């Protein structure tokens, strides 16, 4: 069965960008691994502090809802994620042990510095055909450079969008911070817009960095 590695700079990133797709892979019996590169805790612009343990617990709850096989936590500080050096070897080791068929992370032109770093790490680790399918998830529309994201791969998530939303709700601190059901409504609307492109009710979409035919033929 194919194996999928989703790598977020922060807890909750991959649920927002690819939660419906991950749930769909899991329903097909694929093994999905989630790697979270930073320890999660941070203080926001209003001075509210979110603690590592809180975010980690929320990540575990969300992963249970999606059906993720294993969550791997790295411990880099939020906003200080390096894009090179030993972190590349550390993610190399994860890829060597999991041997994923699909690697999903952020988009290189995302405006969050940690997201950009994660995209660079994914590209470095996927060198020389080590991972056949490499995908960048969509930047969220409130980021100023969302138009740099050019999706080519659309996934019908009509059957898994409710699982995605429950996984987002499991991040109780972030769900409240971003407006609770208003956040859910916005993410749902985004999926509906992406679905419109290809005639699905709801879709997630990805920019293809590399794709072979192994999952199709
Ligand atoms: Zn993030």
UniProtKB/TrEMBL annotation:
Name of the protein in question: N-acetylglucosaminyl deacetylase, LmbE family
Single Gene Ontology MF annotation: hydrolase activity, acting on carbon-nitrogen (but not peptide) bonds, in linear amides
Taxonomic lineage from the root: Archaea, Methanobacteriati, Methanobacteriota, Stenosarchaea group, Methanomicrobia
Family matches, as Pfam families: PIG-L
UniProt superkingdom: Archaea
């Amino acid at each position: 069965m194919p194996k999928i590695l989703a790598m977020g700079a922060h807890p909750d990133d991959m649920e927002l960008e690819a939660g419906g797709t991950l749930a769909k892979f899991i329903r097909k019996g694929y093994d999905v691994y989630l790697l979270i590169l930073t320890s999660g805790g941070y203080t926001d612009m209003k001075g509210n502090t979110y603690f590592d343990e809180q975010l980690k617990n929320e990540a575990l709850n969300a992963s249970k809802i999606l059906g993720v096989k294993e969550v791997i936590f790295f411990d880099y500080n939020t906003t200080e994620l390096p894009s090179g050096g030993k972190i590349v070897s550390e993610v190399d080791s994860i890829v060597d042990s999991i041997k994923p068929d699909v690697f999903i992370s952020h988009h290189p032109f995302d405006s969050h510095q940690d997201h950009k770093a994660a995209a660079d790490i994914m590209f470095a680790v996927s060198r020389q055909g080590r991972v056949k399918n490499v995908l960048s998830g969509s930047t969220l529309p409130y980021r100023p450079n969302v138009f740099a994201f050019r999706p080519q791969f659309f996934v019908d998530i009509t059957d898994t969008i409710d699982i995605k939303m429950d996984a987002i709700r499991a991040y109780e601190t972030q769900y409240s911070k971003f407006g609770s059901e208003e956040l859910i409504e916005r993410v749902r609307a985004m999926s509906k817009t992406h679905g419109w492109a290809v005639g699905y009710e709801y879709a997630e979409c990805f920019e293809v960095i590399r794709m072979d035919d192994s999952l199709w033929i």
